[in-house]
Amino acid sequence: MRKNSVRIICEGAIFVALAHVLGYVKLWRMPWGGSVTLMMLPVFIFAVRWGWKSGLIAGLALGVLQFLFDGGFVLGWQSIIGDYVFACMLCGLAGFFRSKPSSLFVGSVIGALGRFLSLYVTGATLWAEYMPDTFFGMTMTSPWMYSVLYNIVPVGLSLVLCLIVSVVLFIPLKKYILGKDIAQ
What we know:
The protein is mainly alpha-helical. It has one domain: Arp2/3 complex 21 kDa subunit ARPC3 (Orthogonal Bundle), CATH 1.10.1760. It has helices spanning 2-22, 40-50, 52-70, 77-89, 103-125, 143-177, and strands spanning 28-29, 35-36, 134-135, 138-139. It has a two-stranded antiparallel ribbon with strand order 1-2. Strands 3-4 form a two-stranded antiparallel ribbon. Helix 1 (2-22) packs antiparallel against helix 2, helix 2 (40-50) packs antiparallel against helix 3 (52-70) and helix 4 runs antiparallel to helix 5.
């Protein structure tokens, strides 16, 4: 048991570092924060491999790193918690779908949905006063609708990107991702 605990911690540190580095490779950036990256993928893989508890902890560590080093926009502690800490931590929900052949793909969708929900609530409650009159040619009257439209774009595109890369990585890393390489 102790050997697996050390292994989980070491792999978690590697995957969180990889996720943090991938967060700097922004394929597209929204004007007030949010971008399309592969940052979520290492957390998804780690969570599917070790379970949701370890995944949430890895996501929490990533969220703290993202806040400390990202240089993003914050309005206060609520924004730090919702836009960074909870948003990254909830990617670890991918671990609910552990050790099944489709677990990485289903888990990625669930993890991205958790991230989206955190960003959605934070956007509608804290960032509402910065809502423009129009967005993508639509008149904005509800901060909840604006938050959906604003946050679905980067999270949705990042999820699609993660799923594409997951398909490419899954065959060579199948035993690793599904935890078949761990001595039981």
